[in-house]
Model the fold of this input.
Amino acid sequence: MARMKADYDQLVDGLDASYLKLELYVNLRKAKKKDILKGTTSVETCSRYLCEGFVGLFLAGEDRTVLTEIFMATDVVFDSESYLNASKTDYYLKCLSDVIYFELSKKAELQLIDNHPEFVKLGLAINHRLISRLAERSRIKNLGISKGYPAFIKAMPGIGELLTQAELASYFNCTDRTVRSIVREYKSRIK
Done:
C-alpha cells in the first residue's frame, strides 16, 4: 500500500488520509507466472494495480494467439472492452511473471467514488497516465522489432527474459526467425 501511495502521490497531492479509506475497497492478491487473471469465458469485473511483475493481454484468435499489450508495475491491468461493456471478449490476461497486485472490483470502485469523491481526481489522473503509457508502447511497437526492440527492452526492464519468441513475434507482428535474429544482434551489441 505504501508503494501504491507513493506512486499515486506523484499524480495527485493531498490524499494522505484518504488512503486509509482505500484499503477498505481493495484486496491484495498474488499470482504465479502463466496464471490467467481473466479468461475469454468471463466478463471483466475488476481492475488491478500491479505492484510487481508483468501481465500480458492476449487476443485468442482462430489461427494464433496475439500478445497485444504488456502491463508492468504501477500499471492498471484489465480487459477494458469487457470491463466497460460488461461482456465477454476474445481477450485474456495472463501473468508473464509472478505478480503482486491490488484488485478493485467494479462495484467497489463505484462505492469508493460515491463515498469518497476525492478519488475522482485520482481516477482521472490514473486514466490519463494509462493512456499515455499505452500510446508510448504502441509507438515503440509500430517501429517494428528491428528499430523498436532496444526501446522496448529499455522501457520494460526484465521483460526480455520472460517472453517466448512466439510471444515477441506476435507482439511485434513478425516471424519467430526475425525475433531470433534481432535478439541475437541486440545481445551481441550490449556485451
Q: What stands out?
A: Helices lie at 2-9, 18-22, 80-85, 106-115, 119-142, 144-155, 165-172, 176-190.
